[in-house]
Amino acid sequence: MKMKGSDLLVKLLEENDVTHVFGVPGGHLLKFYDSLTDTDEIIPILTKHESGASFMATGFAQVSNELGVCAGTVGPGATNLITGVASAYMDSTPVLVLTAQVGSSTVGKGGLQEATGEGRTPNHVELFDGITKYSTLVSSGSGIDRAFRNAVVEAKNGRPGPSHLDITADTFAAEVEIDSSKVRKFERIHSGALAEEIAEAAELLLTSENPGILAGSGAVGASEAVRELAESYKIPVGTTLKGKGIIPEDHELSVGCVGLYGTNVANKIFRDGIDVLLAVGVSFSEFTTHAWDPDFRPEKGLIQVDIDPWEMGKNYDVAVELLGDAEIVLDQVLQELGERGTKTLGNPERIATEKAKRDYYSDPKMASTDVPIKPQRLMKSLRDSLPEDTILFTDIGNNLTWMESFFQVTTPNSYFLSPSLASMGYGVAASIGGQLAAPDRQVVCVCGDGGFQMQGMEIVTAVNYDIPVKWFIMNNSTLGMIRDTQDQLFGGKRIASDFVNPDFVQLAEAMGAVGLRIERPEEIAEVTEAALNNKRPTVVDVHIDPDEAPSFDARAEAMIRAWGVKPSVYQKLKMIPEVMKRR
User: Fold this and answer.
1) What is the CATH number of the domain that holds 541?
2) Do 216 and 280 form a contact (C-beta atoms < 8 A)?
3) What is the C-alpha separation between 25 and 180, in angstroms, rounded?
4) 520 DSSP assignment
5) Which pTM does this prediction carry?
6) For the residues of 21-68, what is the DSSP string, one character each?
7) How many CB atoms lie within 10 A of CB 286?
8) Which residue, 205, 237, 550, 560, has most beta carbons within 10 Å?
9) Is there a domain that residue 353 lies in?
């Protein structure tokens, strides 16, 4: 069978269930876009900037658990994709990145936008090599199918992540003889742990008197198994920020997020005598562990479940390593435990006592009637107003910390973020991809005003394609996390953190979206209902108290350590009240 290289690429995308390609076409990429006109299965989404395209592909992949695809032309189209691709890489998200390259006959001659590494030109393959699992140049039509296979297999298997194909313009146009059997779907290969290691883990768990389960992003696809294990043995479940909601946070065994901005309950329980810790898809990062606090080390042993051998024992010694897919491994553990008889391992009464003592999702400020609106009240009112199965995206900055601490996620696999690279603007664009991946559910993005202005023009993309995302902008005219650091560690000397905002309602309306405003707490429910009911892209401008700051003790500690200096006595004294709440 013969076909053009670009037609073959589209056929391969179709067979792998790709439904959307996010990007901006350019001259060297137009053969590919022309081939997209011949398919009814793939919709090209024209974004306002390629960074928005890579964020959207990431959001699509996160929600669908399928491959997200973004595309950019040679030169600036490719370099504009980089931040979103790097975010996907650090957060283990399967994205296929397609870039065009100049024609083979012009390599080294200074062709328009050339990016082959010849002379004074960047090199696409090298640029993406450090932020993808696989990056290669495809310079012949006969090489498309194999390069595509390698890219997709790499993106989906092991620890997922992005792959990159750089395709020369003449390759898109080339006539290709293709074996139709090679045009097929490439699936993830699932794996479990060794039987003897499962037996060892079960034995260790059954000796426990105070166990805990800590679930991270690697456990997102295993939420049912996590819940079954917890309920069967009455074990408390904490999550990392990326694992938030793996078990509903209103469940009696859930203690919420562990970490710098986690709940006081989770931080207490997981640093107070856990003897056996089952960690599922957890990297034990700085923010999760309060800068690798020794108290997170369990007394008897750590059982670590992960698909990536690199994570095993990276920050804490491991008693039992269970290498494999979280869902399969946990099913193996459940079966082994079941064969040994059941017993209660945890202490639900202690969990309930700690929740009541430490205001688990019941902080007094969540009921505040103050104007401007307290962020804590906004989180509580949004939770009360949004459908339980709403898909939530958050951005980077204080908006993320407010969501982590005060928004209770009650539906697994409904909360998405990208905190590893921590790119502001991610959520604004990624939520559009997420909505396309789940058209029958409502997608909401909570973001800051600074992050919104980084990717806010993508609202036009949502308008162009009638994608009804709802953006709630926490408007306080400042980069809150930067301002708080300056207030706490630089004596209140603020620089380059405050700014003047546009009128977000008028801006939204100028872009063709709906613009709404919330200025008082009692307006939150009514305006949220109006946003949900209009079925159109909607921007909600929420005026929050600029002087309200999240708990800062742990963040300050992390920043001071990064600078390699010691905090002053005054700084230590200011942190004491927050430190004590977390103990």
Assistant:
1) 3.40.50.970
2) yes
3) 28
4) S
5) 0.95
6) EEEE--GGGHHHHHHHTT-SS-EEEE-SSHHHHHHHHHHHHHHHSS-E
7) 17
8) 237
9) yes
Please state whether beta strands 2-4 and 175-177 pair in parallel, antiparallel, or not at all (unpaired). Answer: antiparallel
Instruction: Quickly state the pLDDT bin for 572 (edges 50, 70, 90).
Output: low
Domain count, the chain: 3
Instruction: Tell me whether residue 94 is in a domain.
Output: yes
Burial letters 294-316, b for 16+ CB under 10 A, else e = eebbbebbbbbbbbeeebeeebb
Do residues 319 and 204 lie in contact, with contact meaning Cβ atoms separated by under 8 Å?
Answer: yes
Amino acid identity at 244: K
Compute the chain's Rg from CA coordinates. Answer: 25
Contact 534, 514 (CB under 8 A): yes
Count Cβ atoms below 10 Å from residue 544 Cβ, excluding itself: 25
> Would 162 be classed as within a structural domain?
yes
Residues 6+ apart with CB under 8 A from 276: 204, 205, 207, 208, 210, 211, 212, 298, 300, 301, 302, 303
* Cβ-contact 139, 108 below 8 angstroms: no
C-alpha distance from residue 114 to each of 32, 120, 246 (Å): 18, 9, 45
pLDDT in tens, 353-362: 999 999 999 9
The verdict on 374 and 310 lying in the same domain is: no
Tens digits of residue pLDDT in 128-175: 999 999 999 999 998 999 999 999 999 999 999 999 999 999 999 999
